[in-house]
Amino acid sequence: MNAIEVTGLTKAFHGRKVVDDVSLSVARGEIAGFLGPNGSGKTTCIRMMCGLLTPDAGNGQVLGHDIRREARAIKRQVGYMTQKFSYYEDLTIEENLAFVAGLYALPAQAVRDTLAGLGLTSRRSQLAGSLSGGWKQRLALAACIMHKPKLLLLDEPTAGVDPKARREFWDEIHGLAADGLTVLVSTHYMDEAERCHRINYIAYGRLIARGTVPEVIASAGLTTFLVTADRPGEVAARLRAAPGVEQVAPFGTTLHVTGTDRAALERALTEAGASFQPGETSLEDVFIRLMGQSRDNMA
Amino acid sequence: MTGISLRRLGALLRKELIQMRRDRITFAMMLLVPLMQLVLFGYAINSDPKHLPAALVAPTQDRFSRAMVSALELTGYYDFTHVGISATEAEALITRGAVAFVVTLPSDFGRRVERGDAPQILIEADATDPSVASGAISTLGTVAAEALQRETGASPTQPPVGIVVHKRYNPEGITQYNIVPGLLGVILQMILVMMTSMALTREIERGTMENLLALPATPVEIMLGKVVPYMGVGAVQVAVVLLAARLLFGVPFVGSFSVLAAGIFTFVLALVILGYLISTLARTQMQAMQLTFFFFLPSLMLSGFMFPFRGMPGWAQTLGEVFPLTHFLRLIRAVMLKGASQPDIAQPMAALLAFVLVYGLLALARFRRTLD
Asked: TM segments (chain B) (predicted)?
């Protein structure tokens, strides 16, 4: 049975649909990426799955428990890491962990083990508010896996964290998944998406793509050419206006030119007098296109 | 699963106490404000006023009336600013508030004292501010008797005069001691309701509410976790105020301590739960503060703390009944000053318990388990 199996989740705030008919399934032991631009409804979806928001429509199960009726049972087995640091800044690291341990009725040893695992034993009396962003993130993660949850819901855990800390964070997530933990992680970093087993892309409250990274890229049916030019700015301006060209994105001295119609794209590039070679379509190219499409659908 | 887990409650309480301790300014405020208010209010409101303006209505001036006047002035309470005026003039003066007392001697005062047939003296007191009148009135009888005895040289076998006191405008002659016990209720209400009214809004504003809700604590546990530490604060405040009442103001304590303690405990419980109820209604700390004051001011006015309860019109009395402070004032005044026992205060006690129940149920009903 899947760790997460929800269908038709819908939530509106003040008459505006923030999440619209989202269905999601995440297999046990999987690291599922939840992608989408800011304000696309990722946080609202996650909150509905862990019982913090009541869906207007839709239903489903998380770890075999009904999301509407068994929120308490879900909370006990889920570790939820909020987007914003939501532990107590006026409590020390140890006091925060002891608070969480107390609410889950864990032995005092759990706090000591967690402190040791974090390498924070010597800094345990430091106020959580004085920690750097990276350490806050590590503390929050440690606090929400202390009770050995079966499912981890991480809401943009790496926002504002430096690359090294992000790398370490993802190593830890993969380690946890290897031990059988299911992880749903929301992000808008493309490199992080590629670290997930499967991704789910949401835009304007609707789920518009899902699968493994290669599957999602292939299903978009995009062709990409790399254009090398001395003055990429001028070429880019000409190409943007040409038929068949959907995206032109500069990467240093090269341009990534993307479109769905391969023939039209080649024609446009030839007419523009650019020298080009076939390139790989990136996840970012796909998502930019998906976002554009869903905006058109909304309008 | 749905019951209260002591382990979880313990974790919530510990966390709350640490936060309370770390917020130094608030912590100091909770301990010092009661003392400061008590001293400030106690001395400002409760001083036994002296040199009150008085008028003398005496158709004939003789040595007896002069003796009366000088004896009264010697007590320090009376300053006769208007002497030898008519009863109509005196009436106007006391209505305007220009004098606090009108002393009226009968026209044949001197002759009747000499005959020894105890003429009556009428003292009309402006009791709109009851504490003003009470001290002055209490000294009257002996002062007048002594003064006239000296003049007549008569033996004190029978009182030389009869004194009739009319407390005007307010039939309930509250003594000055009423202020300090009442102040305990007012101080507790202000600090405890205000502090607990921020309990949840603070979590919401700091962004920790989402996490708290995601953790396995039940609404009852969260409420108790928030409310119980402030009951401890209340206990300390009660001790401080009662001690100061005794040491600084010499307020008598004739009742049973355990009866008073039970009453105070119930009142404090009602207050912290009311504060918690406010915090389930407010969205920000600012709103919580405003709601607290919205509640605080009318309860101060209508509870009988500021104005005598029985002096208020019927509708205001009815309105006053909805405030816990009203019932607490009756309870503490009865116990501290009149020595009332358990059965005597059953009614205010029942009212306070009803507040605890109603506020608690409302708060639990209002508590949002979700972020909706």
From this structure: 25-45, 179-200, 227-249, 255-279, 291-309, 345-365
Same domain, A67 and A184: yes
B216 touches chain A (CB under 8 A): yes
- Within 8 A of B372 by CB-CB distance, chain A residues are 53-54
Whether residues A32 and A98 share a domain: the answer is no
**Encoding tokens for residue A246?**
């959907």
Domain co-membership, A163 together with A259 = no
For residue A45, what are the domain limits? Answer: 2-77+149-213
What is the 3-state secondary structure of B275-323? HHHHHHHCCCHHHHHHHHHHHHHHHHHHCCCCCCHHHCCHHHHHHHCCC
A47:B371 CB<8 A: yes
- Give Cα B257 distance to the centre of its chain: 19
Shortest alpha-carbon distance between residue B217 and chain A (Å)? 6
- What is the ipTM for the molecules in this complex? 0.85
Domains in chain A, number: 3
Q: Taking all residues of chain B, what is their mean pLDDT, rounded to a whole number?
A: 81
Can you say how many angstroms the Cα of residue B95 is from the centroid of all Cα atoms in its chain? 26
Which chain A residues have a beta carbon less than 8 Å from that of B369?
A: 71
A85 interaction partners in chain B (CB closer than 8 Å): 207
Please check the confidence at residue B157 and state whether its pLDDT lies above 70: no
Is A99 within 8 Å of B10 when comparing Cβ atoms? no
Dihedral sign of CA atoms B64, B69, B73, B78 in order = positive
Task: Supply the pTM of this predicted model.
Answer: 0.76
User: From A81, which residue of chain B is nearest by alpha-carbon distance?
Assistant: B211
Return the pLDDT at A235: 85
Whole-angstrom distance, CA of residue B352 vs CA of residue B243: 24
- By C-alpha distance, the chain B residue nearest A147 is B215
Q: How many CB pairs under 8 A join A and B?
A: 81
Domains along the sequence of chain B with CATH? 52-168 (3.40.1710.10), 175-371 (no CATH)
pLDDT of A123 over the 60 cut: yes
Pairing of the two strands A182-187 and A151-155:
parallel
Both A139 and A7 in one domain: the answer is no
Cβ contact A86–B213 (<8 Å): no
Using CA coordinates, name the residue in chain B closest to A46.
Answer: B214
A124 and A254 both lie in a single domain? no
Question: Does residue A138 form part of some domain?
Answer: yes
Q: State the CB neighbour count (10 A cutoff) for residue B370.
A: 12
The verdict on A158 and A135 lying in the same domain is no
The yes-or-no verdict on residue A67 having pLDDT over 50 is yes
Indicate yes or no: CB of A47 within 8 angstroms of CB of B12. Answer: no
- Give the span between the Cα atoms of A156 and A14, in whole angstroms: 25
Q: Any chain A CB within 8 A of the CB of B24?
A: no
What are the chain B neighbours of A156 within 8 Å (beta carbons)? none
A139 and A188 in a common domain: no
* Residue A92 pLDDT: 96
pLDDT at A180 > cutoff 50: yes
